[in-house]
Amino acid sequence: MAPMISDSYIKEQSDSNERVVEKRFKRMKMKVARLDNQGPRKRPEFLVSDGAGPVAICEVKTIFSAAYLKERGVHLSTADDEFMKSPAFSAVPVDFSKIEENLADAVSKYRVLLKDHPELAGVPLVVALFFDWYADYFDLYPSKMEQFPDVAGILQVEKDHLIKAKGEKMTLEELEDRIASGSMKGMGANTKAFKLVENECATVKLPRHFVEWCIT
Q: How much is the pTM?
C-alpha cells in the first residue's frame, strides 16, 4: 500500500474489523478460536464451531482503496487525506482485481492450514470482506467464483438490514415524511448481520444452518 494510507491506519482498521467479525460469530452462538497466532506460517484468522464441531474457517480482509490514481498520486479512498481534499475524479470502471487478490491470499492461507491440520479438511472457507466506501463492489461480485473453488462464500457485515427492507417497501412520500420528522418509530431495531454470497462453484459447501443465519 502506498504511503498515502498509513500503516498505522491499516493495522487499526484491520484489527477492528477482525473484532467485529469475531463478535458477530459469537452473537450467532458460535465458538471462535484464533488460528493465525498458532505457529510461524500464515493462516486464516478464525475457526468457527458450534456444539457439533467446526462449521467454517474464516479469513478477514479489508480493502482500503478502489484504485491508485497515478496522474494525481492518490488512492481513490476516504483514507487518503490528499484525495479527500479534492475528491473530484473521472469515473473508474468496476474492478474486481483487489477482491480477487484477497481471495487468492485467503485460499493460500487456507491450504497452509489444511497441510498443518489435515483433520480440518472438509471445513469450508469463508472470507469476510470490509471495504472503503469507494472500493465496495461486494454486491456486484458474481456468485460463480470459478477461479476460487476453495472459497465457500464471501461475507459482508450489513447494518440495519431490517430497517432498510422496511424502507424499501415505503412510498417516496412516506420516506420524505420520515426524513422530515426524524422519527424511526416502527422501523425496527438497529441490527448487524452477515450478508452472504455463496460460491456456486465451491468444492465444500457451507452448512445450511450457517447459511440460514445470514442474509442471502
A: 0.84
